[in-house]
Design goal:
Blueprint lengths: L1 E3 L16 H8 L7 E3 L5 H6 L7 H6 L14 H7 L7 E4 L2 H5 L8 H20 L5 E4 L13 H5 L8 H23 L3 E2 L13 E2 L3 E2 L1 H17 L7 E6 L7 E6 L10 H4 L7
Parallel strand pairs: 1-2, 1-3, 3-4, 4-5, 5-8
Antiparallel strand pairs: 6-7, 8-9
Length: 277
């Protein structure tokens, strides 16, 4: 089952003839049935408590992947997850990007939003663990640098402190994910490390700066498929990345989470000179 936001529910952000992440994952894990309980636009609070607003609701209805709203018109993914029969073997969780996206116009609320996210996230993880031991944490990739649709880097530039917008975004993500590293190690959960996988200079991975395109979705699906097939419940927490970040050409890299502390994004490694096409 997929739980979270448009980093998994990207049906609205691929061309009509291109596969969504759900479809790509179904092709890569042949015996699996994919249940899409992710919702485009959801914040961590929406995942935890539910919301009546799902950006992709119309298109999902058209393609026979209807959002399972409750009778009161609210979509509560964790309730739906708990009621799945048979229960899912795995849950992929990707949430948090929209918490920050909602305040890009005024980042004065960033400390409060960060506190709320770090309160909601463990609660969501533990709710997923009540359904299955195999919960996969998928971390938010960094947005495309050269696309300006949401003005992410222009907004992040306004955060006080040293460094350019990329360095400031890296520092913010390092701050947010540090306690989640502790949580993953405690619970022996795998982490799909998209912040250190997606190349922010490869526009083909993205749609509208912050959404995964079909190419980006292929990388995500390849990582999820690998973790599903290779990370057993007794395996220590492991970080999974994909390099080079070129669909069909990269390789999955595994690093014990304990060896990646403190978790940090190496600017010289990931952001140097934009790639030559």
């Amino acid at each position: 089952a997929l739980v979270g936001d448009s980093t998994l529910d990207n049906v609205l952000w691929v061309d009509s003839k291109e596969p969504s992440i759900s479809e790509q994952l179904a092709c890569m894990v042949h015996s699996a049935a994919i249940c899409n309980l992710a919702a485009d636009g959801f914040t961590s609070g929406d995942v935890l408590h539910g919301s009546p607003s799902v950006i992709s609701v119309g298109l999902r209805q058209q393609i026979c992947d209807a959002v399972p709203f409750d009778a009161d018109g609210c979509f509560r993914p964790l309730r739906q997850l708990a009621e799945l029969r048979p229960p899912p073997t795995h849950v992929v969780l990707s949430v948090g990007g929209n918490d920050v996206r909602h305040i890009l116009g005024n980042l004065t609320d960033l400390p409060q939003i960060t506190r709320e996210l770090l309160t909601n996230y463990p609660a969501i993880v533990r709710a997923c663990l009540e359904v299955t031991r195999s919960v996969i944490l998928m971390w938010q990739y960094r947005p495309a640098y050269n696309m300006k649709d949401y003005g992410v880097y222009q907004a992040i530039e306004q955060i006080p402190g040293p460094g350019d917008s990329v360095a400031k975004l890296n520092a913010l993500m390092e701050q947010i994910y540090a306690p989640i590293v502790d949580l993953a190690e405690e619970l022996r959960l795998p982490i799909i490390d998209l912040p250190r996988t997606f190349d922010i200079h490869r526009d083909e991975l993205y749609s509208h700066q912050i959404e995964p395109s079909a190419h980006g979705g292929e990388v995500i699906a390849a990582l999820v498929a690998h973790v599903v097939q290779n990370h057993g419940a007794d395996k220590p927490s492991t970080m999974y990345s994909y390099t080079p970040c070129i669909p069909g050409a990269g390789q999955v890299v595994e690093d014990p989470t304990a060896s990646q502390r403190p978790w940090a994004i190496a600017v010289t490694q990931r952001d140097g000179i934009p790639p030559v096409a």
